[in-house]
Each structure stands twice: as C-alpha cells, then as structure tokens.
C-alpha cells in the first residue's frame, strides 16, 4: 500500500507531465495561436463573464417563479397536541349536570390539505411575469456586453504582445547596428583616424542600446504574462501568436461615421439592456399597484380533526376568497411610485448612454483613420531611413561624415520602424475597438 508521501509525489509527477504536455502543445511553432482562438479561451475562463451568465440563469429562474404563480398551490399541515386535561362541553349553566369531552383522551390529532388557484389578481400576475421577462432580457444583454468587453481586453493584450515583440526586434537590431558601429569607431580611433570623443560617444550610445534592449525584453515578458492571465494560463506559459494582419475579419456593413453611429444605437447591448430594465421596473410598479386591489382565489381542501363531539372527523370544502387591502397607510402607493421613478431614471440614463456611445464610435473611427494615414506616411520612411543610415555610415568610414550624423541616422531608423509597427497594430486595435463601439464584436 502506498504511503501518503508516495501518493503526493505521484500526484505531483502527473501534474508536471500534464503541464509539460500543455506547454509543448502551446509552444508548437507550427500552431501559432490566432486571436479567434484566444477569444474562445478567454470566454471559457473569464470569471466576470461566468458571473454574468449566472445572473442570466438566476433571471431565468425568477421568470419561472413568476409564471408558476398562475398555477395551483397545494399545502399540507399536520399537528399532534397533548393537553394536561381533555377539554369538554359543560352544560351546567343550563341546569344540566353533564360534561361531554370534545376529544378522546388528552391527545389531539389534526391534519389538513389545501389547494388554492388565483382567479383574478387585478394584473399582479401578468405584470409580475412581464417584470421577470424584462429582468431576463436585461441580464442577457448585460452578459453580451461583458463578453464583448472580455474580447476587447484580450485583443488589447494580444496586440500588446505583438507590439512588444516588434519593439524587441527593433531594440535588438539597434543594438547589433551600434555594436558594429562601435567596432568601426574603435578601429578608427586606434588607427588615429577619429578623435577620442567619437569613441566615447559610440560607447555611450551602445550602452544606451543595451539598456533599451533589456527594457524591451522585460516589457515583452510582462505583455506575455498579462495575455496568459487573460486566457486562463500560467503566467510563465510560452506564448506563440499569429502576427498576420488583419488579425480577424470584421465587416461592419458601413464605412462612414454617420451610418456606424446609427448602427451602434441598434446593436449595442447596453442600450437594449437599459430598455429592458426600464420595462421591468414599469411592470413592477404596475404589479405593486395591483397587489393593493382585489385578489380573488379559488380554494379547496380536506381537514381531519380527531374528536367525538362532531358527527364526523373529516371534511371536504371548496370556496372563493377575496382579499382587498382597503387601507395600508400609503405603502402600496409609495412602493409603486418608487419603482416608477426608477424606471424613469433608467430611461434618462439610456439617453446619456446614447451620447457616450456616439462618442465612442467617433473616437474609434477617427483613431482608425488616423492610423491608416500614419501607415501611408511611415511605410516609405522606413526604407528612406535605412538607406540614409547606410549612406551616412559609408561617409563616416570614408572620413566624410561625423559620428553624430551616424547616431542621429540610427535613431531615425529606429523611430521610423517603431512608427511603422505601431501604425500597423493601431489599425488592428482601432478596428476591434470600433467593432466594440458599434456592438458587433
């Protein structure tokens, strides 16, 4: 029989093997993870979305409760009571010295079963169902909104990894270029062709490039950890993402700002959810008023009472009952007023949300247009800056240029490449943000 320590060791070994296999699968170069796959992973593990889905399930149960109030309710009761003395009818006051015990012995057994069916509720039931339906609709729209927020957050993390990988490549290229330049300057300095100042400035630039390379490496590690957290993996798990653009196909069905803004008012789940919420509150207000009006129910039942005085011990009954709160000090009216005011507040909030959505659409659309224009400008600049760097370095080797010109050309080359990469990824991120703003993510 295995000891506890052996079992624990075996469990740890199995966990390690499982983790290793999953990491090997993720690290497979031929299977770069796409953004669509990342979204699916996030939607399966995100706790906020799971909470929103649980709220939907709760709202479905509340709707089932509201509907079930239309149907019969069967209840049963039973009791056994033991008294110190058996109660009896005393006819002594009538001049008859007789006492008739009400029960046999001092123990009394009583049971009953009652069934009740609402016949008329002044609209309380129908409005209660409408309120529950509105609450369910609001919960579903909220869950959809949370799902889109989750996808947007993962897209941001995904693109941040790609951006950080590109930044590291630029930093590494810059470091290698300055290492080569520093060697050239050192050789020329040792040959007495350049002053010591050139040698020192080249070494300083090289040290700065090394520092930037370390920072870019660290930023990439942080970006990958943040991405892994979003998709529910260990922070240190390998990350291999598909960098091909566009990252995902998005068809808005409209290209101009006005049509996109109109589409957003139709598609955004927040607006639909607020509308459903206001509808639910108005229905609750009507139900609250209705509960203060006549309530009619059909009742029936069976009662058993252990006794020896009545001619029988069990009874069947049927009847119609009416309940009406004629005066309740204004509680029903105030409760209905509170719900009506909340419904009005929800409608007012919807107007504010419409304005905010219009702003979000405009901002995302303008950011996309800006990124597209930037890409056109910097695409040519990358080639020009690289050619400029080559020419300046050749001139410096031939003694026709200065070390400062070389370092400036290197900085321009780095900057143009960074601008190009940022423009590419900004286009992708702005497209996804625009899809979220429109409500089609």
Supply the key terms.
441 residues; alpha+beta; Outer membrane efflux proteins (OEP); 4-stranded antiparallel beta sheet; two-stranded antiparallel sheet; 9 helices; 6 strands; 12% strand
How would you characterize this protein structure?
67% of the residues lie in helices and 12% in strands. It has helices spanning 4-27, 35-45, 47-68, 124-190, 196-230, 257-267, 269-291, 331-397, 403-438; strands at 73-82, 88-90, 99-101, 107-120, 295-305, 314-323. The strands form 2 sheets. It has a 4-stranded antiparallel beta sheet with strand order 1-4-5-6, with no helix packed on it. A two-stranded antiparallel sheet has the order 2-3. Helix 3 runs antiparallel to helix 4. It has one domain (32-70, 121-292, 328-438): Up-down Bundle (Outer membrane efflux proteins (OEP)), CATH 1.20.1600.10. The longest helix is centred in the middle third of the chain and has 67 residues, at 124-190. It is elongated, with a radius of gyration of 39 Å. It contains 9 helices and 6 strands. It has 441 residues and is of the alpha+beta class. The model is unreliable at 1-29 (pLDDT under 50).
Set out the fold topology.
Layout: H1 4-27, H2 35-45, H3 47-68, E1 73-82, E2 88-90, E3 99-101, E4 107-120, H4 124-190, H5 196-230, H6 257-267, H7 269-291, E5 295-305, E6 314-323, H8 331-397, H9 403-438
Antiparallel strand pairs: 1-4, 2-3, 4-5, 5-6
